[in-house]
Each structure stands twice: as C-alpha cells, then as structure tokens.
Amino acid sequence: MSAALALTPKVASRLFLGVERSVCGRPWRDRLDERATTRALAIAQRHNVPELLARILAGRGVEVDEVEAFLDPTVRRLMPDPHTVTAMEAAAMRLADAMTRGEQVAIFGDYDVDGATASALLARFLRLGGSEPIVHIPDRIFEGYGPNVEAIRALADRGAKLLVTVDCGTASIEPLAEARRLGLDVIVIDHHQADERLPDAIVVNANRLDDLSGLGHLAAFGLVYKVHLHREVLALHGVLALIVEVVLHQFVAVVADGQRVAAFVVDLDSVAVVDAISDVFVVGDSQGPRHQIGLQLESLGTGDRLGKIYG
Fold first, then answer.
1. Which residue in 59, 101, 103, 152 is deepest, having the highest Cβ count within 10 Å?
2. What would the 3-class secondary structure string for 200-220 be?
C-alpha cells in the first residue's frame, strides 16, 4: 500500500470530507484541531450559518462571540475602546466640565502636521459645543518645541482656565508646573515616549509606562479623536451626544467623498506639480510633506486656520 494510503487511525479520523487520496495522490487533512472543530460547531448552531462558513471562521481564529462583528464590521466596532487609554476618562470629564461651565480653553499644539491637525480637530469639536478656544501653535524658530513659560503666561493673561497640550507636553515638567502655579488645569494629549516622571497634569499618552491599551501607534490626532468618542462621559456631563454624532458624521463624510481633502490638495497643487489626485497616496506622499514643511516654516497657527477653512 502506498504511503499516501497508509494512514493511521488517528490521521484517518482527521481527513477532511473523508478524502484519503486526491487527484494529486494526497489526503485532505482537516486543518481544524479538536478545539477549533468544536468552536465551528458552536458557531454554526448559535449564528445559524452554513457549516463550511463556520469552519472557515473557526480556522481564522474567530471566537463564537465575535462572529457578528466579524461578518458585519462597522466603524464603531473597529474603533479601539477609548476607555482603555490611561487617564482618558479623567481628560474627557475635565474637558466636558470646561464646556458646560463655559471656561476658556487654551490649546497648545505642535507645529508639525500631527500637532496642527490635532489642534484643529480639538478646536473644531469645542466650537461645535459652543466654546471658542484659544489656539497657540508655537513659532518653530523663536519658541521651539513644546510648551514654554512665556506662552503659558500669555494664555493665562487671556483668561485661560484649562490648558490642553497636543502632540507635546509629556516631557514639559517645568512649563506645565508654571501653568499649575498660575491656576490652570492641564491636559496633555501626546504620543511621544514618556519617562517615569510625568508633569503635574492629566496625561493622555498611550506610550506612558503605565498604559496597557496597546495603542502606542496612535498619533496625537488619533488620541484627540478618542477623546471625542468618549460619549458616555460627555453625555453625563451635560454635553449633548449629538455633538459627537456630528463629528463622527462629518469625519465619515470626509473619508467618503474626499471633498474637503480634495479642496485642500487643489490649493496645494497651485504651488506643486501633481498630475492627478488619484488616491490617498498622492495626498499623503506628495502633499503631506509640503504641508509639514509649511507648518514648520510658518507660525500663527496654520493648522488651525486650515481646520477652519476646510472643516
């Protein structure tokens, strides 16, 4: 008897559809072990799907309780839970308090693409809630990176009660200590590597040493967006959940039709050579660097101005 047919009882019991010898002379071995086979059966019974589909799902590691989300994915389900980020709830609660009390919020962003767009997104969200934040993007040459004492004092003089640093602040121990001495509450939304010592602030940073969210790949823009998604806390503090729905709807609209992105790219194309706006790679690879260098050479909150124009 050939090797292909000389199957032990254990191997024979693992044949798929009972095929001992295919056209190529090979047995069809079941790729599911006993545990996966049991899971496939449970999937078929609980979700009323064909056995073959259940086996495919089990083979891909889909658990019984995950089948519905796997077969019918939504943006909401695919979004990581914002509650898992350390200090996210405290930051959302403090931001919601500022909005309901009408406190003056100051946003201190970085001058690169991430900092500028994250600042614009946060400012847009606050404006939807009836607030008008002060947005400060530091001058790269004269102020340098991150919060500085002079700028913080100026923001305090303009009535700021809550300072939110975006894409910076994790290592700004002394400048943020000055903010606290001036009576400002401080939220840091950042993604840069953190030391054991953190500033006297609510620090939302998935790369801080005690964060177990696994979201260290998110840039500041992504973390700001996570704050928006903290709808339960916002609703509890009197901010209409409709605000979040509007932000989500408009975000999806941008992704769906690209009109605002296209408008921005067309303007950049007036000073850049691009044959066509074909896909997201054109926007990212050809226009992104121009936006980045423009922000680093320009001052006075370019990112926030772009957010107002194209938002």
1. 152
2. CCEEECCCCCCCCCCCCCCCH
